[in-house]
Write a structure and sequence with these properties.
Length: about 140
């Protein structure tokens, strides 16, 4: 699967890791899996790590279409919540900003796109300076 997620209530975090190639449907499908997952809470900050993402096949029409299909699912977020996307490249940054512009007005999820890992982690409330450090802490079970 090109997108994996894990839920960490002790960190107030839902952590999404993107790898290889993804498209709009992959993103929408993992979002639906996330809100159906055991441990889901609409109060967790969402953090997306694109360090290993090679490319994203998406465009305005596919993003808008899938968001309209997800309207009911987006309503589980009754209060504003933050979704931070670390975008490592210009192409990924551009697609994440497009998602931000289309999605922010229609839901309580506020997307912020960052080019800097430490800024993304800080905004997500994590005390690390790299995604790898967060990954290592999660894998070792340390806070």
């Amino acid at each position: 699967m090109p997108i994996r997620f894990s839920i960490h209530p002790d960190r107030r975090l839902a952590f999404f890791r993107f790898e290889g190639e993804v498209d709009t449907s992959d993103c929408a499908n993992v979002f639906e899996d996330y809100i159906s997952a055991k441990g889901f809470s609409p109060d967790l900050v969402m953090l997306s790590d694109t360090s290993s993402l090679v490319s994203i096949n998406s465009d305005y029409s596919s993003i808008l279409s899938r968001l309209l299909e997800l309207r009911k699912s987006l309503k589980v977020f009754q209060r504003p919540i933050l979704s931070v996307i670390y975008a490592r490249s210009d192409a990924i940054y551009g697609m994440a900003r497009l998602l931000e512009q289309v999605q922010n007005p229609i839901s309580n999820i506020k997307i912020i796109v960052c080019r800097d890992q430490s800024e993304a982690l800080r905004l997500a409330g994590q005390p690390y300076t790299s995604m790898q450090a967060l990954n290592d802490a999660i894998e070792s079970g340390t806070n």
